[in-house]
Specification:
Blueprint: E1 2-6, H1 10-21, E2 25-29, H2 33-40, H3 51-58, E3 63-66, H4 71-75, E4 79-82, H5 97-110, E5 118-121, H6 129-142, E6 151-154, H7 164-169, E7 174-178, H8 184-192, H9 194-199, E8 204-207, H10 209-240, H11 244-251, H12 273-286, H13 292-313, E9 322-326, H14 342-351, E10 355-359, H15 363-372, E11 377-378, H16 382-386, E12 391-394, E13 415-418, E14 430-433
Parallel strand pairs: 1-2, 1-4, 2-3, 4-5, 5-6, 7-8, 9-10, 9-12, 10-11, 12-13, 13-14
Antiparallel strand pairs: 6-7
Bound molecules: uridine-5'-diphosphate-glucuronic acid.
């Protein structure tokens, strides 16, 4: 099949590379020339394991990138995915400008594509956006009609940063939302995913557009709320001197709860959970419903970094003193610092007048954080970061932090605040776990 993909962020590029790996011919469209050049040279524009290898294999043979939507016509695109960003507005709602602009630009060439092309929204959009924003934008510039001349579908992604390729290749489920067009858009989606559907027993949810849009938000909101719930319980555990990880291990044995996403600590960050939970809360309020539990999940999440700082304050006054921050990325194995819990930690330390020294095993994460906090000193290894520090706050669960031991002896006050349960309590350090003793 010939598949177009508009947008070459981490979702668009992962989908493009994986669809090429399925044996499809793929053309990506992006406004950014340097991204297009990188893709055509087989280089990943985002840092994601296994992505570079796939791009290298398929670029120039079955995978091409362009800045020109017209190229989709000669290419003969049968299905075009929209994988454009939906950034957050001030009030938490999503900004659909990019998706709408992409749909309008695609609409300009839609009439020149053969047969009954199908446009698939991959971007995370609130219920109604595909039908009320994307469809009309495509119709406006193409002069064509949804479900008569072209198909419209919504196919959310459930890829995690750091394992996006593996997640795409081994999905828990596929969600195909389509408008009522005699299953033509649905058939197109089934053909796109045929290699995976033939090879694996993957549940397929065939549903409507709004349902597909909401399933994506519900998925992320549920997982984020689950982490906030174990954090809330973890905070109670700490008050009673109980280990939240022991409690989590036990409750995770209940199939109805499951052991996943029960790691309590500094909370959730990244480009998805914070944005998506706020967006669905804002969208629900717009409809007249106030989702109190999801708002509480956000509040608990906001509180966790403050609780780490409070624990530090109980042991040491850091004004004018060196304080180490270990971990800047929002989770291990990425350089992404968007909404990282390290951000409120650094802000809190700045308010306290501390001299902040930070380290992340991924140097690109430090580079990204430097843009926001140029005054923080970023070092290349843990020992000099800890040296002379009055306290250390561990914010990201990078596996290598669990090997730290004698490095803590380099600190002038050995106050260790562990937000991710990666360090063992031992003699000679003042150790505070966030949700355990
Ligand atoms: C998340 C979802 O897991 C994906 O399914 C979804 O496709 C993606 O958002 C998206 O919407 O694009 P991601 O943000 O990459 O993926 O990362 P997760 O592994 O889900 O972790 C999110 C945050 O929760 C991290 O900050 C992590 O440290 C935190 N977390 C996770 C915990 O604090 N405890 C846990 O037990 C699990």
């Amino acid at each position: 099949m010939n598949i177009g993909i508009v947008g070459s962020g981490y979702v668009g590029t992962t989908v493009a590379a994986c669809l090429a790996d399925f044996g499809h011919e793929v053309m990506t469209v992006d406004v950014d020339e340097s991204t297009v050049t990188a893709l055509n040279e087989g280089e990943a524009p985002v840092s994601e394991p296994d992505l570079g290898g796939l791009l290298d294999r398929y670029a120039g043979s079955t995978l091409w990138a362009t800045t020109d939507y017209d190229d989709l016509v000669d290419f003969g695109a049968e299905v075009v995915f929209l994988a454009l960003p939906t950034p957050a507005n001030e009030d938490g709602s999503i900004d659909t400008t990019y998706v709408e602009a992409g749909a309008e630009a695609l609409g300009e060439v839609l009439g020149d594509l053969d047969g009954y092309p199908t446009v698939v929204v991959k971007s995370t959009v609130t219920p109604g956006t595909t039908e009320d924003v994307v469809g009309p934008a495509l119709e406006r510039t193409s002069g064509l009609r949804v479900a008569e001349d072209f198909g419209l579908a919504m196919n959310p992604e459930f890829l995690r940063e750091g394992s996006a390729v593996a997640d795409f290749q081994n999905p828990d489920k596929l969600v195909f939302g389509t408008s009522d067009d005699g299953d033509r858009a649905l058939d197109a989606l089934e053909a796109v995913y045929a290699p995976i559907l033939d090879a694996q027993d993957v549940p397929v949810v065939r549903t409507g557009l709004r349902e597909a849009e909401l399933i994506k938000y519900a998925n992320n909101a549920f997982l984020a709320a689950k982490v906030s719930l174990i954090n809330d319980i973890g905070n109670i555990c700490k008050e009673f001197g109980v280990d939240a990880y022991e409690v989590a291990d036990a409750i995770g044995l209940d199939d109805r709860i499951s052991e996943q996403f029960l790691r309590s600590g500094a909370g959730w960050g990244g480009s998805c959970f914070p944005k998506d939970v706020s967006a669905i809360v804002a969208a629900a309020r717009e409809q007249g419903y106030d989702p109190e539990l999801l708002q509480a999940a956000i509040d608990v999440n906001d509180r966790q970094p403050q609780r780490m700082l409070d624990l530090m304050d109980q042991h040491v006054d850091v004004e004018g003193e060196r304080v180490a921050v270990l971990g800047l990325a929002f989770k291990p194995h990425t350089d992404d610092v968007r909404n990282s819990r390290a951000i409120p930690i650094v802000e809190g330390l700045q308010e306290r007048g501390a001299d902040i020294i930070a380290y992340d095993p991924n140097p690109a994460a430090a580079d990204n954080m430097r843009e926001r906090f140029p005054d923080v000193e970023y070092l290349a290894s843990p020992s000099p970061t800890l040296s002379g520090a009055h306290a250390v706050l561990i914010v990201t669960d990078w596996p290598e932090f669990s090997d730290l031991d004698r490095e803590f002896d380099l600190m002038s006050e050995r106050v260790v605040i562990d937000g991710r349960r990666v360090v063992d309590r031992r003699e000679g350090i003042t150790y505070e776990g966030l949700t355990w003793e």
